[in-house]
Amino acid sequence: xxxxxxxxxxxxxxxxxxxxxxxxxxxxxxxxxxxxxxxxxxxxxxxxxxxxxxxxxxxxxxxxxxxxxxxxxxxxxxxxxxxxxxxxxxxxxxxxxxxxxxxxxxxxxxxxxxxxxxxxxxxxxxxxxxxxxxxxxxxxxxxxxxxxxxxxxxxxxxxxxxxxxxxxxxxxxxxxxxxxxxxxxxxxxxxxxxxxxxxxxxxxxxxxxxxxxxxxxxxxxxxxxxxxxxxxxxxxxxxxxxxxxxxxxxxxxxxxxxxxxxxxxxxxxxxxxxxxxxxxxxxxxxxxxxxxxxxxxxxxxxxxxxxxxxxxxxxxxxxxxxxxxxxxxxxxxxxxxxxxxxxxxxxxxxxxxxxxxxxxxxxxxxxxxxxxxxxxxxxxxxxxxxxxxxxxxxxxxxxxxxxxxxxxxxxxxxxxxxxxxxxxxxxxxxxxxxxxxxxxxxxxxxxxxxxxxxxxxxxxxxxxxxxxxxxxxxxxxxxxxxxxxxxxxxxxxxxxxxxxxxxxxxxxxxxxxxxxxxxxxxxxxxxxxxxxxxxxxxxxxxxxxxxxxxxxxxxxxxxxxxxxxxxxxxxxxxxxxxxxxxxxxxxxxxxxxxxxxxxxxxxxxxxxxxxxxxxxxxxxxxxxxxxxxxxxxxxxxxxxxxxxxxxxxxxxxxxxxxxxxxxxxxxxxxxxxxxxxxxxxxxxxxxxxxxxxxxxxxxxxxxxxxxxxxxxxxxxxxxxxx
Length: 722
Fold this sequence. Notes:
The chain is α/β, with parallel strands linked by helices. It has helices spanning 31-35, 37-54, 120-134, 183-187, 194-207, 225-240, 273-284, 306-320, 384-393, 421-435, 452-462, 485-491, 494-513, 548-554, 564-587, 593-628, 633-658, 665-669, 684-687, 690-701, 714-718, and strands at residues 4-14, 20-30, 57-58, 66-70, 100-104, 111-116, 138-141, 144-146, 159-165, 169-174, 212-216, 245-251, 291-295, 327-332, 359-363, 399-402, 440-445, 464-469, 476-477.
């Protein structure tokens, strides 16, 4: 018989019968659970969380009203132990089977729940899922957890509850090529509290059943690479001790946005390419990376130099053979290879070599799904070529899906908008990927404020399939109530939950299906460059909003094409429903203060999205009035004053929200020397609604071009200067 370790909880609570009394909860874990760091750390965290929720007094209880048995991992247990990789006929990175089974017995005197799994990873997932899916914990953000009210034990039915991962690898890529919450902490060993910030996030991944963590490495660490590697080794070890695989995203020689380069050209480095790759890789690998996600391109939308790129690629492929425990993966960008600038190598991607040992991540962008028929981004009609690549590559190499939960650059949270269609797109994509047997799902994340934590949290929970079996009935899946289930959970009150879902559907109808989103996105620098450099990245209208004055002067007849009525109808509907949602949520106040704060954040995000649409409509109305008045500057100024009033209303929301940012405002919205090509935080443009004001002043002054009110160091972003 296995040795057991007992954890006792003495709880002063409401009894199971509803009468006030004492009852005891005991955790009975077999010794082997404590011997592995993954299950040991999860059990300790599980214990602390449960203790905090019910104000427990730990004691070696001899009698229990509720008992949780944690069995030692056993490959011959009741749970199916095959992994998604065991049916593959090509090299596949092994990760242990990590599903779990909870078995609950019919309560007589004691409520008994037993956890079994075939690996320590499965034990950890079972513990955290029990808290979140059964007891009501909500691990919404690395710095915020909603604790349930456990005045009585909520589980009373006998039965079997099973958790099965939909994907073998599931997790997040933090795109720290942008100045996000953790960009400085990940790159600067001396950043105050930086290591703890990274560990907070890795723990959030573990609590949400994820097993993959990755970020973009920036060139600034190359000045003292051994020192940085010592820093990285501390958080990769922390991740491994919690069952999290750690990946590093870097480039061979990507010139844009200060990406880390394995190979540098003279005059930066005169050594042979082979020597540079060998030396940098050998240093980086001291931090024990499980994956290297390598960028082969020189820049997005840029092709050419095929011979050099293939040579550098083959050098890295050969060198990586020295590290058999680390898998090399690459990513397929959204842009079709034949559409790249600077020459084309045809329809084949350099990021997907013929060697099946190298995996591939197939990337999509923004709040559009793989199967959407209309995707007006990156000069595409749809993502059909990427959908096909997923299917084709899944037959020959380890293939993961790599979508976004935020885009940042002149999109979503940089404006700011709260685009709930992200939830719908990611929900449908997970169903698509599971149906075609894609074994990995890694989400490209670009910031969590303004409600974007909700998208990441929802994706993490959707990556699991839970099934229940009661009274001998067939195991049935627990119903996921559509893409807005966890959004509705935040509101709790049925009326409020229904209303916020209506708002999400409104955004999908108007912004995605009717494509009004193109009129909410400010122009990015490439939009204002001359052809052929003016490549389209995001939804684009017939004219940039800041160029409406020029359109009025040169093509006034086209002003009739502007969707002013549609924008105003969207605004009116959104604001009425958002106001009603505010009233209903206040009428049924949440007991949990944190949950109430999250509700306010979502409502503020929806309101500011409506105000952004109103601001666009006011700019269009100003342009029409300007043309109708035979180009009176006074009339234009009056129209722009109305737009400014809308902007100031939105700015009040921004100032309110900044008080509740999870990290210092200076880090998220201030100016400072960054490891990225942007010397400010990712919400810097939100702080004063820069893009909104820029459009007003562009129209007032008749100015066009990327250098007007420019906040970007364009040569540095393009890699043309240090």
